[in-house]
Specification:
This protein has 12 helices and no strands. By secondary structure, the chain is mainly alpha-helical.
Length: about 240
């Protein structure tokens, strides 16, 4: 029997509210100075999900959770659960995009997102990463797309189809090649704001969701999106 995506989150939230989890959280809190201000998991998640917090401070908190998650025992499991909940808006955006790209069934995508996020956290090299949330989310989504492209290539080769047609076969939204062309065209006009515009204006995700993915505050994402859309409008106006 499959478990709905929102039920997985509800289960994680319920698990994070019991006494055993609180004791594990206290152990993590004692070991990680960045977590000291938070008395319980709910306060920590409120701080991470708040729209007015300092992104650099949130990143320090996420770094502390990653260090704890890379340990062992109940404290490690506690930190991993908190990371999954902290990243949930971004993970949900990846899940929806993956379903849109037809990377698998809803259940397959949900399972893959959680498994890859867990692996990404456990193996993350904190010495080579600047922004935790953006790096983990980007790596998870990239790996899911790569695996699907590899599997599609194998299927087409086995069937005798032209491998060059795999990316545009229509089995993954607009196809990898189409997506790359779209991103390239928008990037020429908007630079680093291209992904933000594509996510919101084309794929239909909220500015808050994309802010989490890109490691921005919601206010910063909103300003960048408005500025980029004005630039895009001006560019289109110049076309004869």
């Amino acid at each position: 029997m499959s478990i709905a995506w929102h039920e997985i989150r509800d289960h994680l939230m319920h698990s994070s509210s019991n006494l055993h989890f609180q004791r594990s959280f206290d152990a993590v809190r004692r070991a990680q100075a960045a977590l000291t201000p938070f008395r319980d998991p709910a306060a920590l998640l409120d701080g991470l999900h708040g729209t007015n917090g300092d992104p650099a401070r949130k990143n320090l908190i996420l770094s502390a959770l990653v260090r704890a998650a890379q340990g062992d025992g109940p404290a490690s499991d506690c930190a991993l659960t908190l990371l999954l909940l902290a990243l949930w808006p971004g993970l949900d955006a990846i899940r929806r995009r993956s379903i849109w790209r037809r990377l698998g069934t809803a259940d397959e995508v949900a399972s893959d997102v959680l498994a890859r996020t867990t692996e990404a956290v456990r193996s993350l090299d904190l010495g080579r990463v600047n922004w935790i949330a953006a790096t983990v989310l980007r790596n998870v989504e990239r790996d899911m797309i790569r695996v699907r492209q590899r599997d599609m290539a194998r299927e087409h080769l086995a069937s005798g189809a032209d491998p060059d047609e795999v990316a545009d076969s229509g089995e993954s939204g607009i196809g990898a090649t189409g997506y790359a062309r779209l991103n390239g065209a928008v990037r020429k006009l908007l630079g680093d704001d291209a992904l933000l515009v594509i996510r919101v204006a084309i794929e239909g995700f909220s500015q808050a969701e994309v802010a989490v993915e890109l490691g921005l505050t919601e206010a910063a994402a909103r300003k960048r999106y408005q500025r980029a859309m004005r630039r895009l409008h001006d560019a289109l106006e110049e076309i004869p």
